[in-house]
């Protein structure tokens, strides 16, 4: 009898933004999915066939001259990709977790979070080693309201200028003298092979990064959340710490109008979390911290999320009308 040809592996289509960083992040996930499907991750041609990348330009990519809060919030980096998911044109999306809004469209979920890269902010400048070393009135370039508020809280004399664009664009603007210093996510620099560029790294307890910073979010349709290739991407510790940080995000209903930071970590088996909310000008800062033992609980992620939510609620109660949530 003739031999039957081997069955072709079903495709898993990844939706991603077209920036160099997004493609680098999605490429890492692409190879991991391919390996889980039995494809040699070193065989790029076969990887591309079985797990093709579908580049989708988002509104956030197209509009580069205004802050996100002026054009609809950080969901503009995910909207078109989520529409493709719901319409069945792709099977999953790879986002930077810090860009994912607290509430997702009906029918979609964050199904997996791979192991996290370093969550800290990186300080880059044309000379000074730290934020404190900048001269009085120096120009700090950033598009992040959180980074602006945290820096002005520490250095109210600084002048903050809007600096949007991809990593290469921001580095070029720094080199051209449009700013004396900039802040970028260290994780993104490392994924682009640029981890040597920062002058220093910001302490994540002194200045908590964006909730989920350094982590990737694998978004799928809710019905697909437990497929084997999805489960292969999950990193338990990261999913717990991110759940804690996003719990705070949910409690504060944070949009791009609300500067908030959150940093969760495990120390000696305990989950420790610090959450901060600030006024945009940095004059007000509200911080709460807590820790809990959750390793023996039946649902550590839910417990972590509850911890984050409780800290967010405590900040909301303390801040009252002083900060717009």
Detail the poorly predicted runs.
1-7
Radius of gyration, in Å, reads 20 Å
Structural class, judged by helices and strands? alpha/beta
Order of adjacent strands in the largest pleated sheet: 2-1-3-10-4
Strand content: 15-25%
- Order of helix and strand elements from N to C terminus: EHHEHHHEEEEHEHEHEEHHEEEH
Helix content: 25-40%
Mind describing the biggest β-sheet? 5 strands, mixed
Question: What labels would you give this structure?
Answer:
five-stranded mixed β-sheet; 325 residues; 13 strands; 21% strand; alpha/beta; 11 helices; disordered N terminus
Helices and strands in order:
Blueprint: E1 14-16, H1 20-36, H2 44-50, E2 53-55, H3 59-62, H4 68-71, H5 79-86, E3 92-96, E4 108-112, E5 121-125, E6 139-142, H6 145-154, E7 159-162, H7 167-175, E8 181-185, H8 186-191, E9 200-201, E10 216-221, H9 228-231, H10 236-252, E11 260-267, E12 270-278, E13 285-292, H11 300-319
Parallel strand pairs: 1-2, 1-3, 6-7, 6-8
Antiparallel strand pairs: 3-10, 4-10, 5-8, 5-9, 11-12, 12-13
Helix pairs in contact: 10-11
């Amino acid at each position: 009898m003739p031999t039957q040809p081997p069955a072709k592996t079903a495709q898993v289509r990844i939706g991603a933004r077209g920036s160099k960083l997004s493609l680098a992040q999605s490429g890492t996930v692409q190879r991991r999915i391919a390996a889980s499907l039995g494809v040699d991750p070193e065989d790029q041609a076969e990887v591309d066939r079985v797990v093709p990348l579908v580049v989708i330009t988002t509104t956030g990519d197209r509009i580069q001259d205004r802050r996100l809060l002026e054009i609809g919030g950080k969901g503009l980096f995910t909207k078109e990709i989520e529409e493709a998911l719901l319409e069945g044109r792709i099977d999953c999306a790879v986002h930077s977790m810090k860009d994912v809004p607290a509430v997702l469209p009906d029918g979609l979920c964050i199904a997996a979070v791979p192991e996290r890269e370093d969550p800290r902010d990186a300080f880059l400048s044309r000379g000074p080693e730290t934020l404190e070393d900048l001269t009085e009135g120096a120009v700090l370039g950033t598009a992040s309201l959180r980074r602006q508020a945290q820096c002005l809280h520490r250095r109210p004399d600084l002048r903050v200028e809007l600096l949007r664009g991809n990593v290469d664009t921001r580095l070029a603007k720094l080199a051209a003298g449009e700013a004396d210093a900039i802040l970028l996510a260290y994780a993104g620099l490392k994924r682009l092979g640029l981890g040597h560029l920062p002058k220093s790294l910001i302490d994540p307890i002194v200045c908590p990064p964006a909730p989920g910073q350094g982590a990737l979010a694998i978004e799928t349709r809710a019905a697909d959340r437990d497929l084997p290739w999805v489960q292969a991407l999950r990193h338990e510790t990261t999913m717990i710490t991110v759940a804690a940080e996003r719990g705070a995000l949910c409690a504060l209903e944070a949009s791009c109008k609300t500067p908030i930071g959150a940093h969760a970590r495990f120390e000696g088996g305990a989950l420790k979390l610090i959450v901060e909310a600030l006024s945009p000008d940095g004059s007000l800062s509200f911080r709460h911290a807590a820790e809990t033992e959750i390793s023996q609980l039946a649902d550590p992620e839910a417990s972590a999320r509850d911890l984050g939510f409780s800290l967010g609620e405590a900040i909301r109660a303390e801040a009252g009308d002083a900060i717009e949530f």
